[in-house]
Design a protein that fits this description.
Blueprint: H1 2-11, E1 23-29, E2 38-44, H2 50-55, H3 66-79, E3 82-88, H4 90-96, H5 98-112, E4 119-123, E5 134-138, H6 141-144, H7 146-167, H8 175-178, H9 184-193, H10 212-220, H11 224-227
Parallel strand pairs: 1-4, 4-5
Antiparallel strand pairs: 1-2, 2-3
Helix pairs in contact: 3-7, 4-5
Length: 229
């Protein structure tokens, strides 16, 4: 309850004019993963739905169970004025670095919104380059903003579902369990098989000798575009 009260107090502050204008909450997930794209969501919520969203449990996605996130993501999409996903591919992560790829995914999510917001609340301390819309960064935004928390939930559910689809093509990496993050079993598989085409080779744990098994995986692997939800 303390965190919920803090969220509503912040969003009602005059600096954000949340009750006067359309504000998009923007967050990304998958930044620390070894496998798969980084995914962002941009969500515009109706001001009159903020309290009810907090009451049903909208909070930082990391504090929720998988079942809670899935249920809330559906509810958020139902009540949102606009809600979109953007992603940056593994190739873009390796070429640009993970920070710039994360900002790119956020930029893409915002540009896909059917309604243009007056302000974007961005989780973290880095502004999105070349964004024509006003933006405000917010450190730990997913803990302090209902809109950013909603974006974190939507992005997390989307990415988890996406990784689950990819897991069928790369069963050796235990992706259903780890969602692309560097668990012990995942790292052991990397040592044994080398990275798949969707591993982030710019990340140190993926810089292992590629085996013939990995080459075979690359030959039959679907692209992110082919599997995108």
């Amino acid at each position: 309850m303390a965190m919920q009260a803090k969220q509503l107090k912040l969003l009602e502050a005059p600096d954000f004019l949340y009750t006067q204008e359309l504000i998009a909450g923007v967050d990304e997930v998958g930044r620390g993963a070894l496998f798969g794209p980084v995914v962002a969501a941009a969500v515009i919520l109706p001001p009159n739905k903020l309290s009810s969203l907090v009451q049903v449990g909208v909070a930082d996605s990391k504090q929720l169970s998988s079942g809670q996130r899935q249920q809330l993501a559906g509810h958020i999409r139902t009540v949102a004025i606009a809600c979109q996903i953007g992603l940056a591919s593994v190739a873009e992560i390796d070429r640009l670095n993970i920070l710039q790829a994360s900002l790119l995914a956020m930029h893409r999510a915002i540009l896909k919104l059917q309604v243009q917001p007056s302000l974007c609340l961005i989780d973290g301390n880095q502004k999105i380059p070349r964004l024509a819309i006003a933006q405000q960064t917010l450190v730990k935004g997913d803990q302090n903003s209902v809109a950013i928390a909603a974006a974190s939930i939507v992005a997390k559910v989307w990415r988890d579902q996406f990784i689950a689809r990819l897991a069928a093509h790369y069963p050796a990496y235990d992706l259903l369990a780890n969602k692309g993050y560097g668990t012990t079993r995942h790292r052991q598989a990397l040592q044994r098989l080398g990275p798949s085409p969707l591993h982030r080779r710019s990340f140190a744990p993926c810089r292992v000798r590629e085996s013939s098994t990995a080459s075979v995986l690359e030959a039959i692997a679907p692209t992110c575009t082919q599997l995108e939800l």
